[in-house]
Specification:
heterodimer, A: 279 residues, mainly alpha, 8 helices, 3 strands, rod-shaped, B: 160 residues, Rna Polymerase Sigma Factor, Chain: A, Arc Repressor Mutant, subunit A, 80% helix, 0% strand
C-alpha cells in the first residue's frame, strides 16, 4: 500500500494489488487513506524575481587606439627633441674645448713640419712671414708636368730637401695660414726625387689666395657675419680659430698628398734596392 | 554548463525550487533566500555540473539550506502548537489544507522526502542522491511520513 501511495508499483504489480484488495474489501479504506496522503503541487505559486537570478557575460570594452597613437607619437617627438638638445649641448662644449687646445704663436716664420713632427697649428694674423720653398735638384717627368702647370713665384728659392721643412715664401700675404705637413711616418726609405715641388702649386694657390680679392671679400664677409651673430667676443674668437684650424688641417692634407705623390717608395736590403714603387 | 544553460535552468526550475523551499521552511522569505543561494552556488559550480544534473543539484543545495533554516528556527514548538490547534479548532473539510497542516507535523527530513516525492516526482534513488541517504532509508522515512499523515487524516476525519 505504501509503494502504491508512492507510485512505485509497476502496472502488473498495481493490478495484483487491486485484485487483492477486491478480495479483501476491508483494506480498501486503508488503501484510500494512504492514497490521500499524496500531496498535490500548487502550480500557482511561482518565483517572481527570476531576473535577479539570471547571469550575463561582462561587456567587452573596445579600446580605441587613437589616443594611444597620439601619446606614442608625442613621446617619440619628445625623445628626439631631448636627444637633439643633448647633442647640441655636447657639440658646443667640444667646440670650446677644441679652441682652447690650439696654442697661439707670435713667431713670424711659418713652417711646414716634417713627418716626424706632429704639428700644433700656430695661428698668426696680420703678419707677414718669409716663406721658403725647397726644391730638389732631381726632376722627373711627373714633376715637370706639375711644374709646367703653373708659374712659380719669384720668391721661391731652392734648397736641399728631404726631411727638411718646406717653406713657402710670400710677402704679400697679409694673413699667414701656416700649413704644417703631417705625413705618415715611413719605416722604409723614402727618397724624394728632384721634382718641381708641387709646393709651387701651393705657393701659387697661396698667392692666389693672398692676392685674390674675392677671397678677401669672403673673409670679410665671414668676419662680418661672425660679428653679427649673437655670440660673445670670446666665442667669436674661438670660432675664428676653429675655422683657421680646420683650414690649416685641410691644407696639411693637401700638402701631404702632394708630397706623397712626388715621392718614390724604395725597399732596400743593405745597399740593394729590392723594391721600388713609383708613386 | 554554459551561460545559456544556466539561464534556462533559472526559467525552468526556479518555481519548483521555490515551492519546495516554501514548504520546507514554511516561510516565503526564507524560501527566496534558499532559491537565491541555490542558484548562486550552481553558478559558481557551473563548470563542474552538467546540464542534465542541474535540477538534482539545485534541489540538493536547496534541501540542505532548508533543513538548516528549519532546524535553526526550531519547528518543534510550532509543531506542538499546531497539534493543539488542530484538535480543538479545526472545522475545515478541505483535504488539501488538512494535508498542509499535517505536513507541518513531520520533521524536516520527512517533509523534504514527501515533497520531493509528491511535488517533483523523484524516484527513491534520486531522492537518496539529493538527500544523501540510502535507498532503504528513503523508503523507511517516506513510509513513516505517510503513516503519520494518514493517522492525522483519520484523526481529523474522526473529529469531523
Amino acid at each position: 500500500m505504501l509503494l502504491y501511495a508512492d507510485r512505485e508499483l509497476s502496472d502488473v504489480q498495481q493490478q495484483q494489488l487491486m485484485d487483492f484488495i477486491a478480495l479483501h474489501t476491508e483494506l480498501q479504506q486503508e488503501l484510500d487513506m494512504y492514497d490521500a496522503t499524496r500531496l498535490i503541487p500548487v502550480t500557482e505559486e511561482v518565483y517572481t524575481d527570476k531576473e535577479s537570478l539570471l547571469k550575463s557575460l561582462p561587456v567587452k570594452r573596445s579600446i580605441s587606439l587613437r589616443r594611444t597613437w597620439v601619446y606614442s607619437a608625442a613621446a617619440v617627438m619628445l625623445l628626439l627633441a631631448s636627444i637633439g638638445i643633448f647633442r647640441w649641448g655636447q657639440n658646443t662644449g667640444t667646440q670650446q674645448i677644441n679652441v682652447a687646445q690650439v696654442p697661439r704663436s707670435t713667431k713670424p716664420s711659418a713652417s711646414i713640419d716634417t713627418p716626424q713632427q706632429n704639428s700644433t697649428v700656430p695661428i698668426q694674423q696680420k703678419e707677414t712671414a718669409p716663406i721658403v720653398v725647397e726644391q730638389k735638384e732631381k726632376h722627373n717627368a711627373a714633376s715637370e708636368k706639375q711644374s709646367n702647370q703653373g708659374p712659380t713665384t719669384p720668391s721661391i728659392t731652392k734648397q736641399a730637401i728631404a726631411h727638411e721643412p718646406i717653406l713657402v715664401k710670400n710677402e704679400s700675404i697679409e694673413k699667414i695660414n701656416i700649413v704644417p705637413v703631417q705625413v705618415a711616418k715611413v719605416t722604409i726609405a723614402v727618397e724624394h726625387k728632384a721634382v718641381e715641388i708641387p709646393v709651387a702649386s701651393i705657393s701659387r694657390s697661396e698667392v692666389k689666395v693672398a692676392n685674390n680679392p674675392t677671397v678677401n671679400k669672403t673673409n670679410k664677409k665671414y668676419n662680418y657675419l661672425l660679428a653679427s651673430l649673437p655670440f660673445s667676443k670670446e666665442r667669436r674668437k674661438g670660432l675664428n680659430e676653429l675655422k683657421n684650424a680646420v683650414a690649416n688641417g685641410v691644407q696639411q692634407v693637401r700638402t701631404a698628398s702632394y708630397n706623397l705623390k712626388a715621392s718614390d717608395l724604395r725597399l732596400k736590403i743593405g745597399n740593394k734596392d729590392v723594391l721600388v714603387v713609383k708613386l | 554548463m554554459e551561460l545559456k544553460d544556466y539561464n534556462a535552468c533559472v526559467h525552468q526550475w526556479s518555481d519548483a525550487l521555490f515551492r519546495f523551499a516554501r514548504k520546507c521552511t514554511g516561510n516565503e522569505e526564507d524560501a527566496r533566500d534558499v532559491v537565491q543561494n541555490s542558484f548562486e552556488v550552481l553558478w559558481q559550480k557551473r563548470e563542474e555540473v552538467r546540464t542534465e544534473k542541474a535540477k538534482a543539484y539545485l534541489f540538493q543545495v536547496g534541501y540542505r539550506q532548508s533543513v538548516d533554516i528549519y532546524r535553526r528556527k526550531g519547528r518543534i514548538q510550532y509543531k506542538e502548537q499546531l497539534e493543539h490547534t488542530d484538535t480543538t479548532t479545526h472545522s475545515n473539510h478541505d483535504l488539501k489544507k488538512i494535508l498542509e497542516r499535517a505536513l507541518e507535523l513531520l520533521d524536516e527530513q520527512q517533509k523534504a522526502l514527501v515533497l520531493l516525492k509528491d511535488y517533483e516526482g523523484y524516484s527513491y534513488e534520486e531522492i537518496a542522491q539529493i538527500t544523501g541517504l540510502s535507498d532503504s532509508q528513503v523508503k523507511v522515512y517516506l513510509h513513516r511520513a505517510r503513516k503519520t499523515l494518514k493517522e492525522y487524516l483519520v484523526k481529523v476525519e474522526n473529529i469531523i
